[in-house]
Design a protein that fits this description.
The chain is of the alpha/beta class. The longest helix has 34 residues, at 470-503.
Length: 506
């Protein structure tokens, strides 16, 4: 028997064909297009692009796998979080979907928070902080800016829900992705009537029913199964990309922590009880297994080193070799990696800072290493915040492009003071979606099995473990304190500089 895992992201759709032992038999990929010519801050895609990309990537994966499609029994879909897919009464998208990285809804976000009595009250009432990218503010944006389209609105979906709807004809949301809308009380796993009222009570009827992640959405429609020579295929609830990546990295039991070192950085862990950060720095999501998934997200990891490589003319190998020549701590050089602003710590107007240059560290090796260290120290601030809120890490499973760097893994182990491992399957979102779908298949066919039992068998670590070094851990503890002190000291200056920057002649 085989499962299909789909990851519909911002840049493209990936499809994996996975057998029930966890082996990858086929892969497919198709690139997405963004909607061009938008106002600054807007980021949108036509949902039809996702369906085309899914079809093309599935054809490629099935072709490469050489399997009998009739033996595929389940499919799961991972999708970019926080998007807004508005459907009319006929189930057709009214307009392009606003995506997770759309920041045109700042005023609407503040409007909702104000109506709820302020940010702390919002967190108290829902268990989660409302970020600019969340779905709730996008719905209010449609009401404020496109009233004609708002009047056509019949159903509110997220990107992965829309693909599930295409596959099955059913409109539902599971707890994990739904918790990233800002419309949900994550502690009770119910829609929040208080938040809904800030937008308009009429939207309550437009929200789909909430589904436990163990429950399937339905079966793939005959017109789709016939096209690919499939038979009866169950569609699992799926989830947001972070929720599916948690499953794909086996992060479904306490003690395992996942870190993704990509353009941005994420750190998340499974909790069996609601996790709430009263300050809202750590996102308090539900997961896609029935638990909770506190998540730290920073904006600056490999995007920073890409800039450095461009300036110095380095390849990844040269950067690694150069940075490895410098000692841990880069002889006291500290880099604040906020070149894209920052989400955690909350410094939207910040910029990058290289601090502490002297005769011993003003060289390519120390500068290169300090920039790599800065991205991890930035994650370290949030990671320590998570530990203060009862996270007890056993080990960290690392994914993303940065996981290919042995030096980055070493810095991560030392800064986090936790062993680090990498995984044999790096496409954690699509892999997790396939694993969740096998769980749904087992449930529907009467085999009682936990998602943890599935991931123990199918998620495989590399044998090499990167252990923290006692000496380096001590150095990074000192450097972490200095890093935190530096950004806190500069926080008012960042805001002042941004306001003055607007008045500077171009």
């Amino acid at each position: 028997m085989y499962a299909i895992g789909v990851d519909s992201g911002t840049q493209g759709t990936k499809v994996l064909i996975v057998d029930f032992a966890g082996e990858i038999l086929g892969r497919g990929y198709w690139k997405h297009r963004m909607t061009p010519g938008l106002e600054p801050g807007a980021s949108e895609q036509d949902p039809g692009i996702w369906i085309t990309a899914f079809s093309k990537a599935l054809e490629e994966a099935l072709d490469k796998s050489k399997i009998d499609p009739a033996k595929v029994v389940s499919i799961g879909v991972s999708g970019q979080q926080h998007g807004f897919v508005p459907l009319d009464r006929e189930g057709i998208p009214i307009r392009p979907a606003k995506l997770w990285n759309d920041t045109s809804t700042i005023k609407e976000t503040e409007e909702i928070i104000t109506k709820m009595g302020g940010r702390k009250k919002f967190i108290e009432k829902t268990g989660i902080n409302l970020a600019v990218g969340f779905t709730a503010s996008k719905i209010l944006w449609l009401k404020n800016h496109e009233p004609e389209n708002y009047n056509k609105l019949s159903t509110i979906l997220l990107p992965h829900n829309y693909i599930n709807y295409y596959l099955t004809g059913n409109t539902v949301m599971e707890f994990g992705d739904a918790s990233g809308t800002g419309l949900m009380n994550i502690k009770e796993r119910k829609w929040s009537k208080e938040v809904i009222k800030t937008i308009g009570p009429e939207i309550e009827a437009k929200l789909p029913a909430l589904l436990h992640p163990s429950e399937p959405v339905g079966y793939v429609k005959p017109e789709i199964t016939d096209r690919y020579n499939l038979k009866k295929v169950i569609v699992s609830g799926g989830g947001g990309d972070n929720m599916m990546a948690a499953i794909g990295t086996g992060n479904v039991v306490p003690g395992i922590v996942t870190a993704s070192l990509g353009t941005s950085g994420t750190v998340y862990a499974y909790f069996s009880e609601p996790f709430v950060d009263p300050e809202g720095e750590i996102a308090s999501f539900c997961d896609s297994t029935g638990g909770w998934l506190p998540l730290l997200c920073t904006m600056n990891v490999t995007n920073v080193t890409e800039h450095l490589k461009a300036v110095l003319g380095f390849s990844n190998e040269i950067l690694e070799n150069s940075a490895s020549k410098a000692p841990a701590g880069s002889n006291g050089l500290i880099f604040l990696p906020f070149i894209s602003g920052e989400r955690v710590p909350v410094l939207p107007h910040s910029s990058g800072v290289l601090f502490g240059l002297n005769n011993t560290n003003f060289n390519k090796s120390c500068i290169s290493r300090s920039i790599m260290e800065g991205t991890i120290l930035n994650l370290g601030y949030g990671f320590n915040r998570m530990k203060s809120l009862n996270l007890v890490p056993g080990k960290i499973r690392v994914t993303g492009g940065g996981s290919n760097s042995k030096l980055w893994l070493k810095i991560l182990a030392d800064v986090f003071h936790t062993p680090v491992v990498t995984l044999k399957e790096q496409e954690a979102g699509a892999f997790g979606a396939a694993l969740q779908s096998t769980w749904a298949y087992y449930n529907i066919t009467g085999k009682k099995i936990t998602i943890g039992e599935i991931t123990v068998e199918m998620v495989k670590e590399h044998k090499e473990i990167t252990e923290p070094d006692t000496g380096s851990v001590s150095i990074y503890r000192i450097l972490q304190d200095r890093f935190n002190s530096l950004w806190k000291t500069l926080a008012p200056e960042f805001t002042l500089h941004k306001s003055k920057e607007r008045d500077m002649p171009v």
